[in-house]
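Sequence in, structure out. Go.
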Amino acid sequence: MKHDTTAEISLTGPPGYRPSGRFVAQAKLQSDPPDCPYGQWDLVVEPVAERIGDEERPGCLTAFVAFLSPSAPHSALRRGAEIGLFRGTTSLGRAVVLAARYAPAEGTVSSGEVIMHGRDSDRDFVAGAEEAAFPRE
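Output:
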Protein backbone atom coordinates (compact mmCIF):
# COMPACT_ATOMS: atom_id res chain seq x y z
CA MET A 1 0.00 0.00 0.00
CA LYS A 2 1.30 3.44 -0.88
CA HIS A 3 1.40 5.84 2.04
CA ASP A 4 0.16 8.83 0.07
CA THR A 5 -2.88 9.87 2.10
CA THR A 6 -3.44 10.28 5.84
CA ALA A 7 -6.80 10.59 7.54
CA GLU A 8 -8.24 10.96 10.99
CA ILE A 9 -10.50 7.99 11.64
CA SER A 10 -13.35 8.19 14.17
CA LEU A 11 -14.72 4.73 14.89
CA THR A 12 -18.16 4.19 16.37
CA GLY A 13 -19.52 1.31 18.39
CA PRO A 14 -18.24 -0.37 21.54
CA PRO A 15 -14.48 -1.02 21.69
CA GLY A 16 -14.86 -4.79 21.22
CA TYR A 17 -16.71 -4.24 17.93
CA ARG A 18 -14.35 -1.69 16.39
CA PRO A 19 -11.85 -2.91 13.81
CA SER A 20 -8.25 -2.93 14.97
CA GLY A 21 -4.99 -2.98 13.08
CA ARG A 22 -5.13 -2.76 9.30
CA PHE A 23 -8.63 -3.23 7.87
CA VAL A 24 -10.73 -2.70 4.76
CA ALA A 25 -14.01 -0.78 4.84
CA GLN A 26 -16.54 0.31 2.25
CA ALA A 27 -16.06 4.02 1.56
CA LYS A 28 -19.17 6.19 1.22
CA LEU A 29 -18.01 9.28 -0.66
CA GLN A 30 -19.91 12.55 -0.77
CA SER A 31 -20.16 12.10 -4.55
CA ASP A 32 -21.73 8.62 -4.35
CA PRO A 33 -25.24 8.39 -5.83
CA PRO A 34 -28.24 7.87 -3.51
CA ASP A 35 -28.59 4.25 -4.64
CA CYS A 36 -25.20 3.49 -2.96
CA PRO A 37 -25.98 4.24 0.70
CA TYR A 38 -23.06 2.16 2.02
CA GLY A 39 -20.35 3.14 -0.44
CA GLN A 40 -19.08 1.48 -3.57
CA TRP A 41 -15.28 1.45 -3.12
CA ASP A 42 -13.10 -0.54 -0.73
CA LEU A 43 -10.76 1.62 1.35
CA VAL A 44 -7.70 0.17 3.09
CA VAL A 45 -7.08 1.75 6.51
CA GLU A 46 -3.60 1.27 8.00
CA PRO A 47 -3.24 2.94 11.43
CA VAL A 48 -0.23 5.16 12.07
CA ALA A 49 -1.13 5.94 15.68
CA GLU A 50 -4.08 5.35 17.98
CA ARG A 51 -4.97 7.89 20.62
CA ILE A 52 -5.12 5.59 23.60
CA GLY A 53 -6.64 7.03 26.75
CA ASP A 54 -8.17 10.03 25.00
CA GLU A 55 -11.48 10.12 26.88
CA GLU A 56 -12.79 13.06 24.87
CA ARG A 57 -12.31 11.24 21.56
CA PRO A 58 -12.43 7.46 22.05
CA GLY A 59 -11.97 5.37 18.93
CA CYS A 60 -9.97 8.10 17.19
CA LEU A 61 -6.84 7.22 15.23
CA THR A 62 -4.65 8.55 12.45
CA ALA A 63 -4.13 6.22 9.51
CA PHE A 64 -2.86 5.91 5.99
CA VAL A 65 -5.79 5.30 3.64
CA ALA A 66 -5.91 4.12 0.03
CA PHE A 67 -8.47 2.66 -2.32
CA LEU A 68 -8.03 -1.03 -3.07
CA SER A 69 -9.09 -0.71 -6.71
CA PRO A 70 -6.90 1.10 -9.25
CA SER A 71 -10.10 2.33 -10.97
CA ALA A 72 -11.42 4.03 -7.80
CA PRO A 73 -11.73 7.84 -7.74
CA HIS A 74 -8.37 8.50 -6.08
CA SER A 75 -8.80 12.26 -6.48
CA ALA A 76 -11.64 12.03 -3.92
CA LEU A 77 -8.97 11.50 -1.25
CA ARG A 78 -8.18 15.19 -0.93
CA ARG A 79 -7.59 17.28 2.18
CA GLY A 80 -10.80 17.87 4.12
CA ALA A 81 -12.81 15.15 2.35
CA GLU A 82 -15.20 13.28 4.65
CA ILE A 83 -15.77 9.60 3.99
CA GLY A 84 -18.27 7.28 5.66
CA LEU A 85 -16.86 3.88 6.61
CA PHE A 86 -19.06 0.78 6.47
CA ARG A 87 -18.83 -2.99 6.84
CA GLY A 88 -21.87 -4.27 4.99
CA THR A 89 -24.75 -2.10 6.18
CA THR A 90 -23.10 -1.36 9.55
CA SER A 91 -21.47 2.02 10.02
CA LEU A 92 -17.92 1.77 11.37
CA GLY A 93 -17.43 5.53 11.61
CA ARG A 94 -15.94 8.19 9.37
CA ALA A 95 -12.65 9.40 7.98
CA VAL A 96 -11.51 12.97 7.37
CA VAL A 97 -8.54 13.30 5.03
CA LEU A 98 -5.72 15.27 6.66
CA ALA A 99 -3.21 15.34 3.80
CA ALA A 100 -2.76 13.79 0.37
CA ARG A 101 0.35 13.39 -1.71
CA TYR A 102 -0.29 12.76 -5.36
CA ALA A 103 0.35 14.39 -8.70
CA PRO A 104 -3.10 15.33 -10.05
CA ALA A 105 -3.85 15.90 -13.70
CA GLU A 106 -2.95 19.43 -14.77
CA GLY A 107 -5.64 21.97 -13.91
CA THR A 108 -7.40 19.80 -11.32
CA VAL A 109 -6.00 21.36 -8.15
CA SER A 110 -8.50 23.55 -6.37
CA SER A 111 -7.52 26.17 -3.83
CA GLY A 112 -7.15 24.82 -0.32
CA GLU A 113 -5.87 21.39 -1.36
CA VAL A 114 -2.56 20.36 0.13
CA ILE A 115 -0.55 18.39 -2.37
CA MET A 116 2.93 17.18 -1.59
CA HIS A 117 4.97 15.73 -4.42
CA GLY A 118 8.43 15.90 -5.86
CA ARG A 119 11.26 15.14 -3.46
CA ASP A 120 9.32 15.12 -0.16
CA SER A 121 10.58 12.18 1.84
CA ASP A 122 8.28 9.52 3.25
CA ARG A 123 9.75 10.23 6.66
CA ASP A 124 8.50 13.85 6.49
CA PHE A 125 5.07 12.67 5.39
CA VAL A 126 4.85 10.11 8.23
CA ALA A 127 6.10 12.74 10.69
CA GLY A 128 3.24 14.98 9.57
CA ALA A 129 0.76 12.17 10.22
CA GLU A 130 2.19 11.56 13.68
CA GLU A 131 2.07 15.30 14.44
CA ALA A 132 -1.62 15.28 13.49
CA ALA A 133 -2.18 12.33 15.82
CA PHE A 134 -0.27 13.88 18.71
CA PRO A 135 -0.43 17.68 18.42
CA ARG A 136 1.84 19.68 20.67
CA GLU A 137 -0.03 21.83 23.11
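Check: The helical segments are 122-133. Residues 51 and 58 are 8 Å apart (CA to CA).
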